[in-house]
Amino acid sequence: MAEDAPKTCFPPVVNAATRVLILGSLPGEASLQAAQYYAHPRNQFWLLLGAILDEDLVALDYPSRLQCLLAHHVGLWDVIAEARRQGSLDAAIREQRHNDLQSLVTALPQLRAIGFNGATAYRAADSIQQDGLIKLALPSSSPAYTLAFAQKLARWQGLRPYLV
User: What is the pTM of this model?
Assistant: First the structure.
Protein backbone atom coordinates (compact mmCIF):
# COMPACT_ATOMS: atom_id res chain seq x y z
CA MET A 1 0.00 0.00 0.00
CA ALA A 2 1.43 3.38 -0.96
CA GLU A 3 2.39 5.51 2.02
CA ASP A 4 0.42 8.47 0.66
CA ALA A 5 -2.74 6.49 -0.08
CA PRO A 6 -5.59 6.90 2.40
CA LYS A 7 -5.98 3.95 4.74
CA THR A 8 -9.50 2.69 5.29
CA CYS A 9 -10.98 0.72 8.16
CA PHE A 10 -12.75 -2.62 7.84
CA PRO A 11 -16.52 -3.09 8.06
CA PRO A 12 -17.92 -3.56 11.56
CA VAL A 13 -18.14 -7.08 12.94
CA VAL A 14 -21.42 -7.01 14.87
CA ASN A 15 -24.84 -8.60 15.06
CA ALA A 16 -28.10 -7.89 16.89
CA ALA A 17 -26.82 -9.77 19.97
CA THR A 18 -23.67 -7.63 20.38
CA ARG A 19 -23.35 -6.57 24.03
CA VAL A 20 -19.78 -5.27 24.01
CA LEU A 21 -18.29 -3.28 21.16
CA ILE A 22 -14.53 -2.83 20.99
CA LEU A 23 -13.43 0.19 19.03
CA GLY A 24 -9.88 0.61 17.80
CA SER A 25 -8.45 3.62 16.01
CA LEU A 26 -7.48 2.48 12.49
CA PRO A 27 -5.93 -0.80 11.34
CA GLY A 28 -2.14 -0.86 11.23
CA GLU A 29 -0.06 -1.86 8.22
CA ALA A 30 0.03 -5.58 9.06
CA SER A 31 -3.75 -5.63 9.51
CA LEU A 32 -4.38 -3.74 6.30
CA GLN A 33 -2.10 -6.07 4.33
CA ALA A 34 -3.77 -9.16 5.81
CA ALA A 35 -7.28 -7.62 5.64
CA GLN A 36 -7.78 -8.74 9.25
CA TYR A 37 -8.34 -6.92 12.51
CA TYR A 38 -5.28 -7.05 14.79
CA ALA A 39 -3.08 -9.07 12.42
CA HIS A 40 0.31 -7.93 13.73
CA PRO A 41 1.80 -10.99 15.46
CA ARG A 42 2.88 -8.94 18.50
CA ASN A 43 -0.47 -7.20 18.96
CA GLN A 44 -2.00 -8.64 22.12
CA PHE A 45 -5.65 -8.16 21.16
CA TRP A 46 -6.44 -11.84 20.51
CA LEU A 47 -4.58 -12.89 23.68
CA LEU A 48 -6.46 -10.33 25.78
CA LEU A 49 -9.89 -11.24 24.40
CA GLY A 50 -9.09 -14.93 24.60
CA ALA A 51 -8.30 -14.58 28.30
CA ILE A 52 -11.53 -12.69 28.94
CA LEU A 53 -13.66 -15.16 26.97
CA ASP A 54 -11.81 -18.30 28.11
CA GLU A 55 -11.15 -19.18 24.45
CA ASP A 56 -7.87 -19.85 22.64
CA LEU A 57 -8.50 -17.26 19.94
CA VAL A 58 -4.87 -17.27 18.81
CA ALA A 59 -5.18 -20.93 17.77
CA LEU A 60 -8.19 -20.21 15.54
CA ASP A 61 -8.12 -19.05 11.94
CA TYR A 62 -9.36 -15.52 11.39
CA PRO A 63 -12.97 -16.31 10.33
CA SER A 64 -13.31 -18.58 13.36
CA ARG A 65 -11.98 -15.83 15.64
CA LEU A 66 -14.66 -13.46 14.40
CA GLN A 67 -17.38 -16.09 14.79
CA CYS A 68 -16.20 -16.80 18.32
CA LEU A 69 -16.35 -13.11 19.21
CA LEU A 70 -19.87 -12.84 17.87
CA ALA A 71 -20.91 -16.00 19.74
CA HIS A 72 -19.70 -14.28 22.92
CA HIS A 73 -21.59 -11.08 21.99
CA VAL A 74 -18.45 -9.07 21.20
CA GLY A 75 -18.26 -6.75 18.20
CA LEU A 76 -15.37 -4.88 16.55
CA TRP A 77 -14.96 -1.70 14.60
CA ASP A 78 -12.77 1.36 14.35
CA VAL A 79 -13.31 4.99 15.23
CA ILE A 80 -11.57 6.27 12.10
CA ALA A 81 -13.12 5.44 8.73
CA GLU A 82 -10.25 6.78 6.65
CA ALA A 83 -7.01 8.66 7.20
CA ARG A 84 -3.53 9.19 5.90
CA ARG A 85 -0.75 7.69 7.99
CA GLN A 86 2.84 6.63 7.41
CA GLY A 87 3.45 3.40 9.31
CA SER A 88 1.11 2.13 11.99
CA LEU A 89 1.41 4.56 14.88
CA ASP A 90 -1.71 6.47 15.88
CA ALA A 91 0.43 9.58 16.40
CA ALA A 92 1.04 9.66 12.62
CA ILE A 93 -2.68 9.76 11.71
CA ARG A 94 -3.71 12.84 9.74
CA GLU A 95 -6.60 13.96 7.53
CA GLN A 96 -8.96 11.62 9.33
CA ARG A 97 -12.63 11.02 8.74
CA HIS A 98 -14.56 9.29 11.52
CA ASN A 99 -17.08 6.48 11.27
CA ASP A 100 -20.70 7.15 12.20
CA LEU A 101 -20.40 5.50 15.61
CA GLN A 102 -23.69 6.85 16.88
CA SER A 103 -25.66 5.16 14.10
CA LEU A 104 -23.98 1.83 14.80
CA VAL A 105 -24.58 2.09 18.54
CA THR A 106 -28.23 2.96 17.96
CA ALA A 107 -28.61 -0.10 15.70
CA LEU A 108 -27.34 -2.52 18.41
CA PRO A 109 -30.28 -3.15 20.75
CA GLN A 110 -28.34 -5.32 23.24
CA LEU A 111 -25.24 -3.09 23.47
CA ARG A 112 -24.20 -2.53 27.08
CA ALA A 113 -20.59 -1.33 26.89
CA ILE A 114 -17.94 0.01 24.56
CA GLY A 115 -14.28 -0.73 25.15
CA PHE A 116 -11.95 1.75 23.50
CA ASN A 117 -8.68 0.07 22.51
CA GLY A 118 -6.23 2.87 23.27
CA ALA A 119 -6.29 6.61 23.83
CA THR A 120 -6.84 7.57 20.18
CA ALA A 121 -10.02 5.50 20.05
CA TYR A 122 -11.18 6.78 23.46
CA ARG A 123 -11.14 10.39 22.23
CA ALA A 124 -14.32 9.50 20.30
CA ALA A 125 -16.20 8.49 23.47
CA ASP A 126 -17.99 11.82 23.80
CA SER A 127 -19.39 11.50 20.27
CA ILE A 128 -21.48 8.50 21.37
CA GLN A 129 -24.61 9.30 23.36
CA GLN A 130 -26.78 6.51 24.72
CA ASP A 131 -28.38 6.22 28.14
CA GLY A 132 -26.89 3.49 30.30
CA LEU A 133 -24.02 2.73 27.92
CA ILE A 134 -20.73 2.10 29.72
CA LYS A 135 -17.59 3.46 28.06
CA LEU A 136 -14.28 1.92 29.11
CA ALA A 137 -10.87 3.35 28.24
CA LEU A 138 -8.61 0.34 27.74
CA PRO A 139 -4.84 0.25 27.38
CA SER A 140 -3.89 -0.32 23.77
CA SER A 141 -3.29 -3.89 22.69
CA SER A 142 -0.60 -2.59 20.32
CA PRO A 143 3.01 -3.70 20.77
CA ALA A 144 3.92 0.00 20.71
CA TYR A 145 2.13 0.40 24.07
CA THR A 146 4.62 -1.24 26.40
CA LEU A 147 2.49 -1.81 29.50
CA ALA A 148 2.95 -5.39 30.74
CA PHE A 149 0.39 -7.93 29.51
CA ALA A 150 -0.88 -8.66 33.05
CA GLN A 151 -1.54 -4.96 33.61
CA LYS A 152 -3.37 -4.66 30.28
CA LEU A 153 -5.42 -7.76 31.05
CA ALA A 154 -6.42 -6.46 34.48
CA ARG A 155 -7.97 -3.39 32.80
CA TRP A 156 -9.50 -5.37 29.91
CA GLN A 157 -11.20 -7.68 32.42
CA GLY A 158 -13.53 -4.73 33.03
CA LEU A 159 -15.40 -5.85 29.89
CA ARG A 160 -16.37 -9.22 31.37
CA PRO A 161 -19.44 -8.15 33.43
CA TYR A 162 -21.12 -6.73 30.33
CA LEU A 163 -20.90 -9.99 28.39
CA VAL A 164 -23.37 -11.92 30.58
Answer: 0.92
